[in-house]
Amino acid sequence: MSSEILVSLSASCLLQPLPRQQSPIALLDVPRFVAEELEVRGINIPVQMIRHQSPQTLDRLRDEADRAQCPCLVLYRDEPLDFVAEGEKSAQVLREMGKRARILGCAEIAVRVTKIATASQQIAPLIKAVLDGLQRLEVNLLIRPSDEPCDQPDAVIELIRKIGGFHIGAMPSFSNAAATGDAQQSLRKLIPYSLAVEATVTSVGKQGVPVDESFDEHIDMLVKLGFSNKLSIDWRGSGNWALAVQSVRAHLMKKLGQEDPVA
Fold it and tell me: Which of 143, 4, 134 has its CA nearest to residue 83?
């Protein structure tokens, strides 16, 4: 019923070492680990993971991802961009992310933007100018709603509409949806604009099921609305993140009717 949803991983958790390990998993080993140990077939890459890496290293990472059949899907940034105070600097960040995403094989970059509720008229033309270059790279731009301060869905949609075109969309998260005060309504509004959704999880129970409030309700709604893009496990809890991701992935595959083992 929902086989078109691709379960992937937002890889910020991989910046932490595994239990009893001294350092995080080596960059070029990440795709194989995600595919073989976590049984997930796609990665959203945080910019922290590839900061200061050469284009040659990024090219090798893409090769490893292809070899593991675990492609790099979205290159994302947590720190918000301030197009009001630092317009050109923020635009340059988008350009650089676009170039790196192209090398990695990512179809999208995703960023948070400050002041979208009060300054979208000023922000939209600046972003639209950058989109022309991203289009030539065959890279889309996704707006990630912030949790603190909380971006409301109507403000995100208004910014997307003012930017316009086929290469702009949203990447909402369950955590932002909860922060709006009406999670289901927030997601319902943003899903038509979304090429990816972050399934935020902060805790799992003894059976490996997410205990986050409304997690299953959100998944059921995505299916009901016909969402057919990337659903990324976004682990923000403590403890053994690898076991947590494995259990969340198994729970998601069961709910989505995709319980067959990864080939």
Answer: 143
> Average pLDDT over the chain, rounded to whole?
93
Instruction: Note the pLDDT tens digit of each residue in 48-58.
Output: 999 999 999 99
First and final C-alpha spacing in the chain: 20
The answer to whether the peptide bond before residue 19 is cis (omega within 30 degrees of 0) is no
SS3 72: strand
Question: What are 120-162's pLDDT values in tens digits?
Answer: 999 999 999 999 899 999 999 999 999 999 999 999 999 999 9
The torsion angle over the Cα atoms of residues 122, 127, 128 and 133, rounded to 10 degrees, is: 150
Q: Are strands 230-235 and 6-10 parallel, antiparallel or unpaired?
A: parallel
Q: Cα(247)–Cα(219) distance, rounded to whole angstroms? A: 16
The one-letter code for the residue type at 92 is Q
Scan for tokens 């595919």, then name that residue.
Answer: 35
> 263 falls in which pLDDT band (50, 70, 90)?
very low
The candidate with the shortest Cα–Cα distance to 65, out of 104, 21, 102, 17, is 104
Rounded to whole angstroms, the Cα distance separating 163 from 54 reads: 31
pLDDT of res. 260:
54
Helix, strand or coil for residue 168?
Answer: strand
Strands laid side by side in the 196-201 sheet: 168-170, 140-143, 108-111, 72-76, 43-46, 6-10, 230-235, 196-201
